[in-house]
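User: As part of a screening pipeline, I want to sanity-check one entry by hand. Below is the sequence and the SMILES for zinc ion. Please return the complex as structure tokens so I can compare it with the automated output.
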Amino acid sequence: MEIFLSDIPDEGMELDGEFPASIFDLPADDTIRPDGSVHYEATIYAFEEVITLHGRLKGPFQLQCGACLDYFPYEADFPDWSTELDREPNQQSFDLAVVVREDFLLNLPAHPRCDELVEGRVCPKADLVEDFSDDEEPSAGEERPNIWGALDEWKQ
Ligand SMILES: [Zn+2]
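Assistant: Here is the complex for your manual check:
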């Protein structure tokens, strides 16, 4: 959905609507599966060097659990969404669908666990992963991102 910068007034442009799941165009085996249309509400400003968007993104997804590899439903809701695009010289327009797509993908949990995100769910592989992650306190920094980062490297 093409937004022309010349159409954006100084006081900002308010838009809301939906995009079909097809904007994501992900491979079938991706850990993220869009599960329906996604909704956006955006206030858009065009400044001399940047275009800013802020508002809310919501949409249904199926995410793959990092432990048991099952897909589970996840209702994404980013009520404080904001993003900034660098403005290219002579740029006339931008594609809102591309921005919305990218920001969903960036904001969805990177290493989702079904038992953390689905109430009452017991992950069938939780024990395996917990043995590993509870082994000892990590020496420095965050715990989970490091552990999952190492797992990701092994998979490659
Ligand atoms: Zn799981």
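Points to compare against the pipeline: The chain is about 25% helix and 35% strand. The CA atoms of residues 144 and 150 lie 10 Å apart.
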